[in-house]
Here is the input.
Amino acid sequence: MKQVKMKTSIRILAILFGLFLSVGAFAQSTITGQVTDASGEPIIGATVRIVGQDGGVITDIDGNFSIKAEPGSMLSVSYIGYKTVEKPVAQNMKITLQDDAQLLEDVVVIGYGTVKKGDLTGSVSAMKPDEMSKGITNNAADMLVGKVAGVDVITSGGAPGSGSQIRIRGGSSLNASNDPLIVIDGLTIDNYNKKDPGYYDRNVLAMINPNDIETFNILKDASATAIYGSRASNGVIIITTKKGKKGSGPKFSYNGDVTVSTTQKRYEVLSGDEYRALIGKVIGENGVSLLGNANTDWQDEIYRTAVSTSHNLSMTGGLKNMPYRVSIGYQSDQGIIKNSFMNRFNASVNLAPSFFDSHLNFNITAKYMAEKDRYVDSGAAIGGALSMDPTRPVMDDSEPYKFLGGYWQNIVSANFSDPSWAYTKNPNAPQNPVAYLNQNERYAHSDDFTANFEVDYKIHGFEDLHLHASYGGQYTAYRESNMNSPYGYSNNYYGWNGRTYGWKYSITANAYAQYTHTFGAHYIDVMAGAEESHYHRSGYNIGQGTDPYTGEANNPALRNETEWATHNSLVSYFGRINYTLLDRYMLTATIRADGSSRFADGHKWGYFPSVALAWKINDEKFMKNLTWWNEFKLRLGWGQTGQQDIGYDFLYTPLYVTSNSYAQYPFGDTYYYTMRPDKYNPDLTWETTTTWNAGLDFAFLNNRITANIDAYYRETTDLIQEVTLPTLMNFGQRMAQNIGSLENYGVEFTIGAKPIVTKDFVWDVQYNVAWNHNEITELIGGDDDYYVESGSTISRGNSTHVQAHTVGQPANSFWVYQQVYDENGKPLEGVYVDRDGNGIINNDDRYFYKSPAADVFMGLTMKFTYKNWDLSTAFRASLGNYVYYDFLSNKAAVSASGLYSNSAFTNTTQAAVDLGFSGTNGTEYYLSDYFVRNASFLKCTNITLGYSFPALLKYAGQDYFSGRIFATVQNPFIITKYKGLDPEVAGGIDRNPYPRPFSVQIGLNLNF
Here is the structure.
């Protein structure tokens, strides 16, 4: 019987406790050698490792290396642009790496196929996630944060399972979707359904486990995206998952981690003692007598230290000609607000069999995701914590509060059917946030299944011709339960028991033929195909409160009144030609025709062409002697893409909708539902985005330094926007219309380098920066001062907007009064610049000031490796983004009526007290530009320290349990002048956000 080598258990314990021991438990010797290319030149920075072990060493400036290895081990040597070599270990090894044409030329996934990397003509960024520097990744979008120039990712907040806002080169639309198209393993994903909030808010990238992702390919300019036509005006993100390898035995990989999270910053509101002192000063002793004696920190009562964990297991291998990969993952995230959580299960299968000497190839993928969430309303929880009277306790056992479950709450006399129910909540008073968290249960369950079946046939005897077809689909079932206690603030006495259900499924099928051939100095790649997609969505909600005294339903939601269903279809024809002359002059041309069911006859079809040119300057004779300059390529591109993701499937045609039970018509003693016409616009047509792009790609010193720079101009015409309709002009107050045009232009720069490469130490740097200018150039339907309100409402006023669209300004610019200040620089309440000079301050004096979109955003990732140790850190910056400071604006009315209204006290902040506003002069102080703040920031996204250890166990000649342990700190610090909770605010209105937490994670990766 073969024996397991000794000291294994000791070394496992040592790893788990962080006492990293050497691999001296095995008899090892030092192997030395040199790595060169085919011409004999030393290769600097090649990775040398022992097969089956993590870690390794790097060749020095002369290509030399030394590494410890056991007799009989296999040595692996790899470097970008060269084929990996594996050889048995020996002394004084001489290893020559050959150019890898596949790696250099045929690795970039684009729409409907791949393209030679060297022949790439469009603006495409390829990114492979780095395990050592990815930080804490709860979903696929987290892996893109700060990593790609021109791609701005803002997470929705710190809520478990929350999604992200992803913008590629700014937004190209005002009211239609600005989200990029997501393509996962060849299947386009349905990520939009405005009618049902359950779908709209859900994280579309939750369906894919981040540990399954092999590469991201981001298509940014129209010459790259036009092949996707009407869905690609906001760019395309192509995600390719990991696959097995032919003829390899099963290999298992485990990734697990534990994360502890807490708040990194809190709003500063007054304590109980401070509040009593303020009330005494503003209102007097009569006001103080109405306060309590407690000192309750309401934020302490709602926040917690959260513990989360994830576990992922994968099996990869190949049965002769059928590579396979199977993975499962489980993630359990606690939110830092009490009672919020997310539990998610992912599973995926990939099979890629090939037959007939690889002439017939299949790629079969299937993914399943099940998620359960408990949501909390940040407005109720955080808003309540910031507003509640700090002099009151959380609980009160006095008689009146038994009608509120024993929680303290402002109360008024009740008038319900049950005469013994004497008190109820004061509807105009802040809500006890602890009561909200414990008396309301909102759970969501979702199941998502996606599958895609692809087949590619290389014609026998005519191998230059490929026939490709795929058939795939996505099915999602969503259900949500919402239960409010009859003792709670919401629906006091009646309570609420409600359910929301939603379903969606989509089917996409395509087929295309591709012909490639080289004729002497000419290379051509011609592709043509067709695609058809169908999207179906439906849902309903039911629920009611119940009068406990009479048993009657209160405010019921009935299925026959809330049920809805919709669908849309897209039929497409597309083609592409790639032509290369002398392997250095390249032309790409594409065309796509899309027919959408969302538009009326005469507007259904959109046509989206593109053309791009590239020149490999480094292959010219005048650069042949510059051997240190590996790549120098010029790219030029032009193209058009479209937009039909408008949130309505039948807006183009007259429809009748059924009334609810509150709008029935009586005939005698019987009430009947009525049918009423809905708004419609038969003239609605495509948004069209035209893009010009110019770029340069560079590489130096055997690709040790790589860089690219792109400049672009994008113009969107026939913008779709909800506008107010004139009276009696249609069956509605607002409706989507094509109203104008919008432009974005900017510059992107990316550089990657290894500044230091030695035998044991490597310093790797990746940096990207992007500048974007956004401006509305035309709005149809008004004069020069015409504007359309936009964005979210603020806390003060009555559904008040402080953002709008207008010509000559960025989309969603802040629309405010210009504040006047005294000689000491302090704002004067209600004193604004009379911009039109008529002596009256009104809406005509409001002006457009700044934008929530950043002018410049940057990302920096640095990774240091020393022997088996690695240290990485990631930063990102946003410059020129402005935020409306809603928290201060909402608290700024520091007066008797501002602090005590409707028999209830409302807390405030010292910053509001120092500001000196009273909110009593009727001047709409909250519309001042004083509250629009510069929110530029530099964030350290994560810092990670890791140690890669070799195999812990040898058995039957095989190595087992190599891996890596690591510790990560997420969001350790932010540098910003913004005084709010977090300067990173999607949309620009900083109103009761769910805080992004500070987190510490410890994790383990094992390969066996």
The radius of gyration is 31 Å.
